[in-house]
């Protein structure tokens, strides 16, 4: 059988979407041990290692150093390469749609909605890409520090200052080496829009995803309808076909129809692109809905999965302030390995003096001890171990405002600093 251009388009989309899906989602715990998880390891580790090894033998590593320079440029510098790739694909698909499908779509509702919906991805792209995601500067750092409290589980109040920015990292922020700054409530750096997704543009990012989903599903529906009407016209011109059972009536007839005119192959290609890439966008949206429901960012979900592993292994300990315990009548009988409760570390004291709200009293701190006896951080002075956590369900995520809708409200109305 001779493959037509259309077949190549379909094969390309299927392979491309599958690879993107595996690369993006294969590392999720849900896929551990499954074929998706294994394919992720294969694509991400095994194959690159093999290529590097072969390259070393053949060219002495020249190919590897040249390509990693390119990859470095694409991944570690601000650039519009991926965004342009997306924009070109979207624009070409829409242009072909308006040329070949639009004249065959009737009905004022569709004619009104199509241009409106087609513009949405561009509009939200602009907002995500050009809204300041929440860059922490020397000027606003004090206000940023007040925005979210430290939970002392994934963000530490006595934690480090940013090595590049040289100020204290606000809770929930993360330094982005591409954007060259600490970003408030940093979700992730998105090469697709050449910007970080943070406190101020996460809402637009969600709308961007939804607008793409809308274009893809609505586009699939419209292009399919156009093709189906043509199918009926060609094979049942007398109007004998009426029921959806004719959808798949004849595979051969469909193939003939698709290849009968140039516009039918174009419309079929658009339909294929739209319907085959929409699961990818749905997966993305589902992942983010899950994060919002749990009150965490992509960055935090990685931190939480580490905490979960530690907790499941019985290595997560809660330290509490002893004075507070005494006031509440806590008998301190926990697993009680005491630290020198009397002395307060000079650095912590300095912080307390500078920021009165960072009072040590009553603060709960989670600390994990690794197998080799080292800690992820040292227990703060004046605090004692009260218990060992046996699972993540015993640990409160203070950034969760109480479910999906409350978290959406917080995302939609960020405070201005
Ligand atoms: Zn920084
Ligand atoms: Zn960034």
Report on this structure.
The chain is mainly α. The chain has helices at 5-25, 35-59, 62-76, 81-101, 108-130, 141-147, 202-235, 251-260, 262-294, 298-312, 322-327, 346-354, 404-412, and strands spanning 174-176, 181-183, 188-190, 195-197, 316-321, 364-368, 383-389. It folds into three domains: 1-76, no CATH class; 79-294 and 407-417, no CATH class; 301-406, no CATH class. The protein has 13 helices and seven strands. The strands form three sheets. The protein has a three-stranded antiparallel sheet. Strands 1-2 form a two-stranded antiparallel sheet. A two-stranded antiparallel sheet has the order 3-4. The termini are far apart. The model is unreliable at 324-361 (pLDDT under 50). It is elongated, with a radius of gyration of 28 Å. Helix 1 packs across helix 2 (35-59) and helix 5 (108-130) packs antiparallel against helix 7 (202-235). The structure holds zinc ion (2 copies). The site of one zinc ion (ZN) has 6 residues, from strand 2.
